[in-house]
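Data card: per-record layout.
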Amino acid sequence: MSAATARTAPGPARRYPLANWLALRRNPLAFFEGLARAYGDVVRFRLGPVFVHLVNDPELIRSVLVTRADAYHKGRGLERAKRLLGEGLLTSEDAVHLRQRRLMQPAFHRERISGYGDTMVRYAERAAERWRAGETLDVHREMVALTLAIVGKTLFDADVEGEADEIGGALTEAMELFNRLFTVPFGELLEKLPIPATRRFEKARGRLDATIARLIAERRKSPGDRTDLLTLLLLAQDTEGDGGGMTDALLRDEAMTIFLAGHETTANALTWTWHLLSRNADVELRLHEELDRVLGGRLPTISDLPRLRYAEMVLSESMRLYPPAWIVGRRAIVEHDLGGYRIPAGSILLLSQWITHRDARYFPDPLRFDPLRFTPEAQAARPKFAYFPFGGGPRVCIGEGFAWMEGVLLLATIARRWRLSRTENEPTPAAMITLRPKGGLRMRIEPR
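The structure for this 448-residue chain is written out next.
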């Protein structure tokens, strides 16, 4: 079927200007759940002057991310995210994106990231040693501080542990204000006005920029014999392209993107994992049994990863229920047909991990926490893109291998010593750029 003869996707009738946007702002997760429930796998609705299509079918998601990836650019949200990330790998397009990915890929080869495992475990054990039995901590804040320290050391060979609270606070402020300012209709106008929210966003971004600028300046001054990401970026030459390296502006943008994305998603994944373990004693017990059997009381190493299969499944199931990256946006650059529906050029397509990961067609009893959904047999029995926590296709997250290794090693290191119990009601997911627990997550530390 051609785009000219394809039909228009179903969706809600337009009630009044900005009605959908207001519902989306109130509760984005509930808004998308309602659309999928009412209209199915492809839903067309309007946000201000723009038509949006919510796509929930795994084969159509594969088409958008993989087979027809050349028909799309990044969505409106990530275009706006350039205000924070610049032209980094997450936001750049076409030739710039391809060149930057070529320059950065060697830093994320399996052999190179495996060398980061000892550092990850050492930092996690140091954090665990600071905890005390019976104390109550904001576990999200703890995970942010831990993963910030790890990304600083492994990817930048820098000690940012002492700044973790300040950097984490600036990041939270920037993300909340980004969500408030730049994801609204006419946000381009708001960002130019000297209103308090805009000034606070600029201050938070300036704090993050200062850290990145310091790291780059220190490395230029004293490069030494290092193999971390920042050094590789400084030395990288595009041998398949123009033979040049990165400009200072692109170096800043890539460093900012990796610094922020390299810790935020893992921190969120681990936070939600502790929450889910505290409410599922049978899963927690089985995890502890695996850790005791594989580790025998010692710290984990990367050589243990193949035998920590249940720990990996726990993390996988946590990211199914609470995907750190909860939505992917694309903008159609040509008119085309998708699943029999006409997608006009300029349309926004949204692919939501939150929706697809909780679809009962692929995950029966979807709200139940069951790591056994991720046995090899269970995974083979469902469509590949029923689960896509790191995206897919040519723009799949470059740090996926790093994130899996870090998540399992940190989970194993901490859970071998401590269990975390709930001290509050069910946390509310805050659907911003990533999926965080609103207001953090306070839990009580208890010895195993």
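Known properties of this structure: The chain has a mean pLDDT of 86. Residues 149 and 162 are 8 Å apart (CA to CA).

See the next section for split statistics.
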